[in-house]
């Protein structure tokens, strides 16, 4: 005799999830909150909850800083070549083609002239999305040409910096760009013209050891990693524990390497204020 005479049978009901388009949400690396991607983009790629600064595409940076329709690009068609015939797991030419297709840009830096506030300036913007903004012959040449044109035209220079280091595919030709860009900036300084670099995350190695650290006033975005060698390499070399926040913008501000940490929404107004001061 069954224990329960009127036992009912149940069947599982599958509830279909709503079709939600992908790419609408993202996780903040600062506060770990899930945030609406479009809201972050509209907020200059800054988390609206914690202020974490995400990387910003170069064309959006140019639009953020330059007055409408005032930016005119220099040397847009200049591209790198595999002069050393680099061989490895992937050829240098393949790497370049992949990054050109990914970014829609020919190189890791875009240089030109623009109006920022009421000031005509030379403007360069590096982009980490292109081969880690590594500095090769073309990056160095485009930056140097912009520096030299600005000197000839009597313009101050603004340079948005980011880089993972020298471009290993070009060997010594890459390292030579450190001296070339630095020499061009020395001539710019001798002409009595202002140069303001803005260090974004990350700014390291050869770029940091050359034009990124030669400004009259050096600005940085919050929490940007700034230095020559990375923290892991330094720790392994010195066999010492590094201070908390070592090589972050705020630490370097406290120790005098940079002059001010500026949140991205305040960057343009800060640059205009500095340009006003230098123009007196």
Give structural attributes:
280 residues; alpha/beta; 2-enoyl-CoA Hydratase, Chain A, domain 1; 2 domains; 8-stranded mixed β-sheet; globular; AcCoA_carboxyl_beta; lipid metabolism; EC 2.1.3.15
Structural write-up:
By secondary structure, the protein is α/β, with parallel strands linked by helices. The protein has two domains: 22-54, no CATH class; 55-279, 2-enoyl-CoA Hydratase, Chain A, domain 1. The protein has helices spanning 37-42, 58-65, 92-103, 137-153, 172-190, 205-208, 231-238, 249-254, 267-278, and strands at residues 25-27, 34-36, 72-74, 109-116, 119-126, 157-163, 195-204, 219-220, 226-227, 260-261. The strands form two sheets. Strands 3, 4, 5, 6, 7, 8, 9 and 10 form an eight-stranded mixed β-sheet that branches. A two-stranded antiparallel sheet has the order 1-2. α4 (137-153) runs parallel beside α5. The chain is globular and about 50 Å long. It starts with 24 loop residues before the first strand and ends with a helix. The mean pLDDT is 89. This is Acetyl-coenzyme A carboxylase carboxyl transferase subunit beta. Keywords: ATP-binding, Cytoplasm, Fatty acid biosynthesis, Fatty acid metabolism, Ligase, Lipid biosynthesis, Lipid metabolism, Metal-binding, Nucleotide-binding, Transferase, Zinc, Zinc-finger. It catalyses: N(6)-carboxybiotinyl-L-lysyl-[protein] + acetyl-CoA = N(6)-biotinyl-L-lysyl-[protein] + malonyl-CoA. InterPro entries: AcCoA_carboxyl_beta, Acetyl_CoA_COase_Trfase_b_su, ClpP/crotonase-like_dom_sf, COA_CT_N, Znf-ACC.
């Amino acid at each position: 005799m069954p224990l329960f005479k009127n036992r009912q049978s149940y069947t599982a009901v599958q509830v279909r999830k709503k079709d939600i388009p992908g790419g609408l949400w993202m996780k903040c690396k600062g506060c770990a909150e899930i945030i609406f991607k479009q809201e972050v983009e509209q907020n200059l790629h800054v988390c609206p909850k914690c202020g974490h600064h995400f990387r910003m595409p170069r064309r959006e940076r140019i639009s953020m800083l330059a007055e409408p329709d005032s930016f005119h690009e220099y040397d847009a068609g200049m591209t790198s070549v595999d002069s050393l015939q680099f061989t490895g797991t992937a050829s240098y030419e393949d790497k370049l083609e992949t990054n050109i297709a990914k970014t829609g840009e020919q190189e890791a830096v875009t240089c030109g002239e623009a109006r920022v506030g009421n000031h005509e300036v030379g403007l360069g913007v590096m982009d980490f999305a292109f081969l880690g903004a590594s500095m090769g012959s073309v990056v160095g040449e485009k930056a140097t040409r912009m520096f030299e044109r600005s000197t000839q035209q009597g313009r101050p220079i603004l340079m948005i910096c980011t880089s993972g280091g020298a471009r290993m595919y070009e060997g010594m030709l890459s390292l030579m760009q450190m001296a070339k860009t630095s020499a061009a900036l020395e001539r710019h300084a001798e002409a009595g013209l202002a140069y303001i670099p803005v260090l974004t995350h990350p700014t390291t190695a050869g770029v940091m050891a050359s034009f990124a650290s030669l400004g009259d006033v050096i600005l940085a975005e919050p929490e940007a990693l700034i230095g020559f060698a990375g923290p892991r390499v330094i720790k392994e070399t010195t066999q010492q524990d590094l201070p908390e926040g070592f090589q972050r913008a705020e630490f370097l501000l406290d120790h005098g390497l940079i002059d001010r940490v500026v949140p991205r929404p305040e960057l343009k107004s800060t640059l205009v204020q500095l340009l006003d001061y230098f123009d007196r």
